[in-house]
Structure formats: structure tokens, C-alpha cells
Specification:
The chain has 135 residues and is an all-alpha fold. It is built from 4 helices and no strands.
């Protein structure tokens, strides 16, 4: 287990949320927001790939011996798949439609869902990983 990985994943979350917060602060769609959305999309894809390659394999192996962890990974994994697909779809739609009529409302919902997921991931999954690393 690699404690530095958790630091790196947390740093990814911070980068994502800074960009998301900057979009929220902008208050509407613009060229700067478009650039930030492209940055968010890239950062999100990189982060998801990093988790899939380095975080989840270790957790899945540990979950083979721990039913509670297995259940948690199943629930969080399904949720992440839904959120990631929805997030990437929204971003693509906003980029194609220059934001669209409902951009501000849709983005605020996206921001809330992403922040909530990140918080749960850090407090639940990452803390489990760190406990496993310490044992």
C-alpha cells in the first residue's frame, strides 16, 4: 500500500475543486469557463484512471477477505460510475452547446454532487486504505 498515493489523490481532488469553484465564481458561461471545463474534464479522467490503476486493485484484493469492505467498494464503485458518466456527459454537453440555457443551475448541481462524492471518498475509502496500510 502506498500512502503517497492517497496524498496524490487528495491533491487531485483539490485541483478539481479549485477549478470547479472558479467556474462557480464566474457565474455563467464564458471562454474562460470553457477552458476551465476542459481542465476539469482532463483532471477528472486522469484522476479516475489513477484510481482504477493504483487504488482500486489494492482495495479489491483486501475486500476479498473483508465483506464490509467488499460491500462498501461495491456501493461506492456503482455510485462513482454513475457520477463519472453523468459528469463527463454534462461537461461534453456544455462544451458542445457553449453552456446552454440551464448551465448555471446544472453546474451548481454538478458542483454539489462532486464535492459530496469527494468528501465521502476521502473520509470513507481513503481512510480505509490508510488503515489497511497501517496494519
Amino acid at each position: 500500500m502506498n500512502i503517497a498515493l492517497i496524498r496524490e489523490l487528495n491533491a487531485d481532488h483539490a485541483v478539481l475543486m479549485r477549478a470547479v469553484d472558479a467556474i462557480h465564481t464566474a457565474g455563467g458561461y464564458s471562454n474562460d469557463v470553457r477552458d476551465l471545463l476542459i481542465k476539469v474534464r482532463s483532471a477528472l479522467v486522469r484522476h479516475l484512471d489513477k484510481e482504477e490503476q493504483h487504488f482500486y486493485p489494492v482495495m479489491r484484493e483486501a475486500a476479498e477477505k473483508n465483506m464490509d469492505l467488499n460491500n462498501l467498494l461495491t456501493v461506492m464503485g456503482l455510485e462513482m460510475e454513475q457520477i463519472a458518466n453523468k459528469a463527463l456527459g454534462l461537461i461534453e454537453g456544455w462544451l458542445e452547446k457553449d453552456g446552454g440555457d440551464a448551465f448555471t443551475d446544472e453546474f451548481d448541481s454538478f458542483r454539489t454532487i462532486l464535492a459530496s462524492r469527494i468528501s465521502r471518498e476521502e473520509k470513507t475509502l481513503y481512510s480505509k486504505y490508510l488503515k489497511l496500510a497501517g496494519s
